[in-house]
Specification:
30% of the residues lie in helices and 12% in strands. It is of the alpha+beta class.
Length: 96
């Protein structure tokens, strides 16, 4: 197994990663990792007064496969605003 393959193997990730390591693993900016920590979609722990570590499980849980929705899934149907009455706006109160 090459070094590049090892870097992307989730089993070889340490249990706690720095923000920079987590960003490298996901190929995103460290600022993105900080945002996910702030919105609580990524779990992290403070180590000492300044160091922050991201948990491996939380990082892997953030990654999910992109698959097409099953046929007939109503959530997958997109209705454009042009297809709705009044272009998607609520009805106007017009005097009779």
């Amino acid at each position: 197994m090459s070094t590049a393959d090892q870097r992307w193997d989730p089993e070889l990730l340490p249990p706690l990663l720095t923000i920079e390591e987590a960003a490298q693993f996901l190929r995103v900016a460290p600022k993105t990792i900080r945002r996910r920590i702030a919105d609580r979609s990524l779990r992290a722990h403070r180590v000492g007064p300044r160091a922050i570590r991201v948990t491996r499980e939380s990082l892997l849980a953030l990654v999910r496969p992109v698959v097409p929705p099953p046929p007939g899934d109503l959530r997958a149907q997109h209705v454009s605003r042009e297809d709705t009455p009044n272009n998607g706006h609520p009805p106007r109160n017009t005097p009779c």
